[in-house]
Structures are given as structure tokens and as C-alpha cells.
Amino acid sequence: MDLPGRVAAYARREGLLPRGAAVVAAVSGGLDSVVLLDVLDALRGPLGFRLSVATFDHGMRPGVSAEDTAFVRRLAAERGLVAHCGRRAVAPRGEEEARRERLAFLAGIAADRVALGHHRDDQAETVLLRLIRGTGLEGLVAMEPYRPPFVRPLLAEPRDALAAHAERRGLTWREDASNADPTYERNRIRHQVLPLLESLRTGAGGRLAALADLLRQDAAVLARAEQDALSRVTTPGGLDRVALDAEPRALQARLLRKLVADTRGSTRGLTARHLESPLDLVRRGRPGAHAPLPGGWRIVVDEDVVRCLPPVPQPLVLDAAGVFEWGIHVIRARTLPGDEPLPTLLVRPPRCGDRVGRTPLGEALRRRAVPPGLRPWHPVFWAQGTLAWAPPCDPAPSGPPRWSVTVTASRDVAGGGWTWAAAL
Predict the structure, then answer these.
(1) Helix H segments across 48-107?
(2) What ranges do the domains of the chain cover?
(3) Is domain 3-212 given the CATH code 2.40.50.180 in the classification?
(4) pLDDT level of residue 23 (50, 70, 90 thresholds)
(5) Measured between alpha carbons, how far is 90 from 101 in angstroms, rounded to an integer?
(6) 236-309 maps to CATH 3.40.50.720
(7) Are 221 and 239 in contact (CB under 8 A)?
(8) pTM, whole model, 2 decimals?
(9) Which run of H or of E encompasses 283?
(10) Could you tell me which residues come within 8 angstroms of residue 120 by beta carbon, excluding any fewer than 6 positions away?
């Protein structure tokens, strides 16, 4: 079976190119993407999808990248296809930023699928790169055939098969000199490590790619188990500590990672090592104990809840009415009429030595059932050098109030969505 036939079978098996779909081929002008375009062009009739072309100029190779774009435009025109062309005005700071911008451009095109030209050798390189950098099961899954909106129809094919197809079809392409630059880690894997592995065991690259496919199936099973466990351990504000501790440790780690992703918005920079301390805290940490995460975030355990919390906020000066996001709270302040000068309010986290009347602040918050894990994020209001209010305690006695202040705790991290109000 020729390359288009094998790709068609693979696409049917993985559901990559459904009939009637609008498919965009991401073409840089290199061998892999030119072969991708040629194969998809051959399959669009038999499989019944609509095809267009997209290319993105990162601006990393002045002059040369513009020629690449012109080359891709000609390829699309020769096949009667629309070409979507994007360009970055300022060169990115590195390969990772360039990759993110390219994917964002491609994802923004109105299409059902965006086809990328990654092949089996790329997959093997990715597995090795992630292995030596440190990763878990999902990392070793590497590139998936379909992760909306992106599809990889060539992922089961070795690069040699693409080169043979290009030669047989008389295709031309552009060479990117950076692909031979040994300063890039992936290039050293491609030109040094993988050939060495092949010399030790023929077919090593194919086996690495096959491993990723096997792990993808295992990861899908674990993902379903995670969803089932999530329904058992989710509680307002975070995860139920007792229920989480009853789960297998491998699922605990996945559930904590899910908590971080949902609360923080991503797991960027998060490694298995970051989860080791939180896992221990779930089992035996005292209420209020915490473990650091990238970016100043923390996993915090209380007696019954495990939370993911943002960095403790910096002091905030209030000298005018408004609505202010402060850590896990929203503060709404408005001024009240009066003859006395408007005092400036300072909002800050608790500190050692703070007192509500004669009572240490920590004890006052404990009596008012503020969980230990949330106390470092608690707002304390000061006016004219005096602790004026530490909700939910009563405000300190003062003269005629000039401020009306409402504090609302985020339901997502506090669980209760409490609201307190006072005139200060």
C-alpha cells in the first residue's frame, strides 16, 4: 500500500479526517509539510473533506522566512487551494514562544481540523526529550493523533517513507538550516542519539513511538478513573482531604494536578517533584500546612479540605472608592458622608503581633471558624495606625464611619463564598 493509502487507513481508524470537514494543512515549506499537503490533496476527494493551506512566518529568519511563505503560496495556488498566511511583526524570544504563536494562529483559522506534519521519528524524538527532562505518563504519550483542533495524519509513518514519497512524486521543498544546528536539543537527539540507538538495536525509534501509542491507551483508562475519583473527592473550595487520602497514591497525584490546573489555570512548570510534599501533607500534615508550587502558588491542607491558593497578596492602600481583587477576596469600598477627613485604609495579610482588642488575631480568627489554611490570605484593615477590622470579627470602636467596606471570599477556593461588611 502506498503512503496515501496507509494515511487514509490511519485517518479512518483514528477519526482524523471526517467526511465534510474543513481541513487546514499547516505547511512550512519543509519536506514533512509538503508531503502532508500532497497526501491530503490526494485524499480530499476519496475521503470527502475540504482542504486549504496555512503558513505562519515567525520572523526568526529575516528574508528567508518571507521566501518560505511565497513558496507555500505557490504550492497552494498550483493545487487551487486557499492559503491562510500569518506573520509575526517582532521576532519571538525563542523556539517555544514561536511554537505557541504558530499554534495559536492555526487554531484561530475557521476549520474543523488543522493537520500537522509530525511523523513517527518526531514522536520518538519527543519521547526521548521528555524522558530526559523528566515527565509522567501523559508526557510520555507525547504527540497525539488528534487533540482538537489538531490532527497528525502522518504520525504512524517514518521520515524515510515521507522522503521516498517525495522522490517518487517529484516534490520540491525548502530546507531550514536551523534543523541541523546542534545548539538545539531536539537536533542532537535527531542526529546523534537516535542514530546511536538504531545502531544498538534496529527499529529503536519505531519502538519508542509505539511506546507512546501504548501509553496513550493506558492514559485514557487512567483519565476515566480520575474522573470517577473526582466525583468522590470534590468538595466546595477544593478536595475532600479524607476522601482524597483514601484513593491510591497515583490517583491522588492526578487529582492534585487537576486541582492545580482548574484553580491556577494551567500546570505550566509543575513537575512530579512539586506534588511529593502535598501528597505527604494529605496524609499527615497539620491543618494550615502548605507546600509551594511554581509562581508562588501553594497547596494548603486543612482538617477537611485540600486547596490550591494563589500567592499571598501584597498590601493594598485604599484612598478612593472602588472594587478591588485582593488575593482570594474581592473588596468593595465606598465612602460615607461626614465632616471628618477621609482616612486612608491599608489592607494587608495578618502579621505576628496583630490583635483584635486584647486577643491575638490568630485566636480571634480561630474562634470565628476561619480555617488555618486560609488565614495567611485573610484581609486585615488598618486606619490611622490602628487595626480597624479583621473580618469576620467586629470592627474596632472608632469615630463616625467614613468607609463602607464589603469583603467577599471566592467560592472557588474558600468554599463558602463568605461575605462580610462593616462601616469603618
Answers:
(1) 64-78, 95-107
(2) 3-212, 236-309, 316-423
(3) no
(4) very high
(5) 12
(6) no
(7) no
(8) 0.76
(9) helix 272-284
(10) 154, 155, 156, 157, 158, 159, 205, 206, 209
